[in-house]
Amino acid sequence: MKLQVNGQKYDIDIDGKTPLLWALRESLGLSGTKFGCGIAACGACTVHINGNAVRSCSFPVEAAQGADITTIEGLSKNRSHPLQQAWIEAQIPQCGYCQSGMLMAAAALIKQIPRPNDRQINQAITNICRCGTYHRVRIAIKKATGQAT
């Protein structure tokens, strides 16, 4: 399989039906994308494929060939993305497990809707956070997009 991940090209030997999540984690060593539920419900495994948020645990790696894949490691190299900065400032992570998926979903949202309102955020960010950080996630998204909170 030929993949382009975070701007780099890779050629990996993997069954095409394997979920993209496992190609990223096991074949490429990109462990920021997390396994949560395995049925695309929780969103811990969210990555971008051609700029769209996709749950990689149920997305076959063969369907990602030729696409531009971005993982949490590719969002920024030094936590300089406005969302990452807002996440830190709002002290969102508690256990932190879901946060890479949340960040990736939020990044896809603000790319499509540069100044989302609460309703748009709630519709787009369907990731599950067991710590219940949803209110702070909305605050961070608004801060990162220059909206008053």
Task: List its traits.
alpha+beta, 6 helices, single chain, 13% strand, 35% helix, 149 residues, 5 strands
Report on the structure:
α3 crosses α6. It contains 6 helices and 5 strands; from the N terminus they run ββαβββααααα. Strands 2-1-5-3-4 form a 5-stranded mixed beta sheet. It is an alpha+beta fold and 149 residues long. The N and C termini lie far apart (44 Å). 35% of the residues lie in helices and 13% in strands.
Question: Would you count the extended β strands for me?
Answer: 5
Separation, N- and C-terminal Cα atoms:
44 Å
Radius of gyration: 15 Å
SSE run = EEHEEEHHHHH
Mean residue pLDDT: 96
Shape: globular
Largest sheet: 5 strands, mixed
Strand line-up in the sheet with most strands: 2-1-5-3-4
Residue share in helix: 25-40%
Low-confidence stretches: none
How many helices? 6
Strand share of the residues?
5-15%
Structural classification: alpha+beta
Describe the structure in brief.
The protein has 149 residues and is an alpha+beta fold. The protein is built from six helices and five strands. The protein has helices spanning 20-27, 72-75, 82-89, 99-112, 118-124, 134-144; strands spanning 2-5, 8-11, 46-49, 52-55, 68-70.
What topology emerges from the helices and strands here?
Elements: E1 2-5, E2 8-11, H1 20-27, E3 46-49, E4 52-55, E5 68-70, H2 72-75, H3 82-89, H4 99-112, H5 118-124, H6 134-144
Parallel strand pairs: 1-5
Antiparallel strand pairs: 1-2, 3-4, 3-5
Helix pairs in contact: 3-6
